Amino acid sequence: MKTSQDLFKQLDEAESLFSKGSIKVAQKKVREVISKSKELDKIPNKLRHKINFAIGQSRYFDDMSSFATNPKREELIKEISTIIQSPLESPKKQAHLIHDVQTKWQLLDLSSRPASKEQWNKFNELTNKAWEPCSEYFDELKQIKINNAAQRMEIINNINKYVEDNSSNWPQPKFLIQFLRQSFDEWQKYAPVLDKDLNKLRNAYFEAKKPINDAIKKQEQIVIKAKEALIEKVNAITDEDNDTCIKKFNDLKNEWKKAGSAGRKADNKLWDKFNKSADRFFNAKKEVIDAELIKANELLSQLKSDEISINEVLKSLSDLKNISKTKEFSSIQKQINNKRKEQESKLKQNKIDSYNNLLDAFLNNELDKIQVPSSIKNKLNEKPQEKSSSEALTYACVKLEALAGIDSLKKDAQLRQSIQMEMLTNKFNKVSNNLNSVDDLLIHFVNNISAKPTAAEKTLWKRVSKTIDILV
Asked: I need a surface site. Which of 219, 357, 376, 417 has the fewest CB within 10 A?
């Protein structure tokens, strides 16, 4: 005999099932409690109140179910009435049409509270009347319903066999749910059945599934406890280094993924709680990132206005370790590259200008006023030659044109050809006459010009200047 404490426990389980949405299972448990309570000599008032509350819950869900399904049943009654008013010429087609309506009715009974007696009597009366023109086909359809019942019984037997084979070592919940879903899909295929078989088969179907549903809930409870323990581990993380905290949280997140499913509703709630427990780490991380972003924007502004050098920016950037993938960091790098190109371009232009001004500065003794490399200054004569060496000047000019890929004058064609042969021979034999670089050829030109260059010699220098723009 059940004690009142046992019944209290069962009612608590029923209340939990109601809250989880397992309405049918909860209602069955309430009915069991009501039945067992009749065996007690006296029902305690507290238990009676709890039973009445559970009955109220059960009726509430029945009312909700009826509220959702009754309009659909009324539509099916209307469909049957339409068939009676406008019967089909083919009894077979009419029988199939009625069969489809009956199937829909029975599926509503399976998924929700059964129809009221008034609704059922009305539907049954109209269905019988609609069947009258189909008497020839009635026996055939009856056999279909009998066969459907046999198929449903086979599904129930398969479920029982599955329970027997797996109850000692249940598969993971996802496989159990998959099996139940497949069984339900099969069950849906074999409707309708005879009215006398409907309730019997439906009850047997729910009883067969019960051990599997219980196994799913039991495994989900284990996963729930495991995930609650992981949440507690997150709460226990208190390292001073925030990055270490985040790493530990990510490690626990990997454990979470391996823990399995706690059921869709519980999983979502636990996941939210798990992530909220780690919000403090990411909020602290965000504060660090925000501070670095402010610093990055300051550096970008200072770099654009030339307040600080590229090296100073690079040194400061090495301390900003948390924003390397942000657009602000990319903007600074882009600006650094632009600045470098700008500086390189400026240096290049300064060098070109100084080389172009080399001859005038040498002739006017103003080499200190231009930025010519000391390697050139040190190799120049102290003062211009008394007389220019036309051959040396032309050689330097034509060779610079050859190096720059600029066409020389027709009168210099033979010299150009000779120089090109010389360059090829030097390259092949890996020898040099020390007049292969721009600097050496410029020195050679300046050292072989007189203090007062002729117009022809100045023209040669103009030709040299054109090569400088390309070669420097």
From this structure: 417
Backbone angles phi, psi at 385, to 5 degrees: -65, 155
**pTM tops 0.70:** no
- The tokens describing 314, both together, are 């690079």
Model confidence at 67: pLDDT above 70: no
CA distances 311 to 246, 316, 331, 336, Å, are 32, 9, 16, 9
Residues 77 and 5 in one domain: yes
Q: Which of 471, 447, 472 is nearest to 378 (CA)?
A: 447
Q: Is residue 65 part of a domain?
A: yes
Q: Are residues 315 and 415 in the same domain?
A: no
* Cβ contact 302:284 at 8 Å: no
Residues 363 and 466 in one domain: yes
Quick one: which of 229, 230, 231, 249 has its CA closest to 241?
249
Q: Judging by beta carbons within 10 Å of its beta carbon (0-12, 13-18, 19+), is residue 284 exposed, middle or buried?
A: middle
Per the domain annotation, does 162 fall within a domain?
no
- Angstrom distance (rounded) from CA 354 to CA 442: 12
Helices (H) and strands (E) in the chain, counts: 19, 0
Residue type, 96: H
Question: Is residue 240, in this structure, part of any structural domain at all?
Answer: yes
SS3 at position 450: strand
Q: Are residues 467 and 379 in the same domain?
A: yes
Instruction: Please determine, for residue 1, whether its predicted confidence score (pLDDT) is greater than 90.
Output: no
Digit-coded pLDDT (tens) for 138-184: 677 788 889 999 999 999 999 999 999 999 999 988 899 899 999 99
- 273 and 366 in a single domain? The answer is no
- Give the C-alpha separation, 204 to 220, whole Å: 25
Whether 377 is in a domain gets the answer yes
Q: Where does a domain end: 86, 107, 136?
A: 86
Same domain flag for 40 and 70: yes
Which pLDDT tens digit goes with each residue over 95-120? 888 888 888 877 776 556 666 778 88
**Cis, bond preceding 192 (omega within 30 deg of 0):** yes
What's residue 26's pLDDT? 75
Residue range of the domain that includes 253: 220-277
For residue 399, pLDDT over 60 is answered with yes
**How far apart are alpha carbons 342 and 349 in whole angstroms?**
10
Give whole-number Cα distances, 240 to 164, 252, 292, 422, in Å.
54, 18, 19, 72
Q: Are 138 and 182 in contact (CB under 8 A)?
A: no
